[in-house]
From TrEMBL:
Pathway as given in its UniProt record: Amino-acid biosynthesis; L-isoleucine biosynthesis; L-isoleucine from 2-oxobutanoate: step 4/4; Amino-acid biosynthesis; L-valine biosynthesis; L-valine from pyruvate: step 4/4; Amino-acid biosynthesis; L-leucine biosynthesis; L-leucine from 3-methyl-2-oxobutanoate: step 4/4
Organism per entry: Thermohalobaculum xanthum
Keywords in alphabetical order: Amino-acid biosynthesis, Aminotransferase, Branched-chain amino acid biosynthesis, Transferase
Annotated catalysed reactions: L-valine + 2-oxoglutarate = 3-methyl-2-oxobutanoate + L-glutamate; L-leucine + 2-oxoglutarate = 4-methyl-2-oxopentanoate + L-glutamate; L-isoleucine + 2-oxoglutarate = (S)-3-methyl-2-oxopentanoate + L-glutamate
EC number of this enzyme: 2.6.1.42
GO biological process: branched-chain amino acid biosynthetic process
Lineage top rank: taxon: Bacteria
Name of the protein in its database record: Probable branched-chain-amino-acid aminotransferase
InterPro entries: Aminotrans_IV, Aminotransferase-like, BCAT-like_C, BCAT-like_N, Class-IV_PLP-Dep_Aminotrnsfr
A GO molecular function held by the record: branched-chain-amino-acid transaminase activity
Job of this protein: Acts on leucine, isoleucine and valine.
Family, per entry: Belongs to the class-IV pyridoxal-phosphate-dependent aminotransferase family.
Amino acid sequence: MHDWSKGAAIIRGEIVPIAEARIGVTDWGMTRSDITYDVAPVLEGAFFRLPDYLARFAASRAALRLSIPEDDAAIRATLHAIVARAGLRNAYVAMVASRGAPAVPGSRDPRDCVNHFYAWCVPYLRVISAEVEARGARIWIARQTHRIPEDSINPRVKNYHWGDFTQALFEAYDHGADTAVLTDHAGNIAEGPGFNVFCVSGGRLITPRGHCLEGITRQTVLDAAAEAGVAAEVRDIPLAEFLDADEVFTATTAGGPVPVVRVDDRILGNGAPGPVSEMLRERYWQMTRRAALRDPVVYA
Ligand code: PLP
């Protein structure tokens, strides 16, 4: 019997249990990371801000000159179908466009590749575990690895170029941290493996301008801050300023905002999540329940 509860995928138009989902070894998505993706959440039975995720996915495909037959309406219908098939009320839902394999065997010309779309969903997951979230995350600012330069790989296009993140994670673990944050080559804060970052200084909320994905969660946090009357800035954050911040937190689809209680060896707020971070985290989860931002899944 298939175990749909672990997730479902659609590949070449067929819905299969997640454990059976496969792509070919000659696919340039595999051999060259020539691929883009996006991940939307299903929370308590509905997609949250799905049009925003679909728009970002379309922009990423355009930036990489990836062309798939499916339009936004078809992608939306497919995502709904796999989540309904898996019966997941809380899910991490990935949509992927890959360069594919060349139709002309052995060709090195990307124009010969047959681009294709697939999607998959698994039970909702968190980039930072619930246990770490409860006590507050410890982050390490990577010194040996920087985020890949924007003019090499555009970080606003969600991508599988995670070599820098992975090396930074090992460096973080070596220093007893839960996860890493990377800087750009000029020493400004960029992002972490799967999340954006915020800091709070003198009551102002600040998040990096460049060298990062323009996160949907980041946007929701900025919206929540605007509603709460918290002044926010999207701009470069030099490392020294970040290290001096009153509060720090991370933000991602896979877990929402998560407070940070240690940066490098420095303890923030006596080791407890800061008040602005906590207020915005609470408002974030309230916003995920707003009907206008939800697209309910119809389960069989
Ligand atoms: N930065 C990176 C590198 C990511 O992979 C992610 C994804 O989850 C984020 C930031 C946060 O973006 P979002 O809030 O849209 O999930």
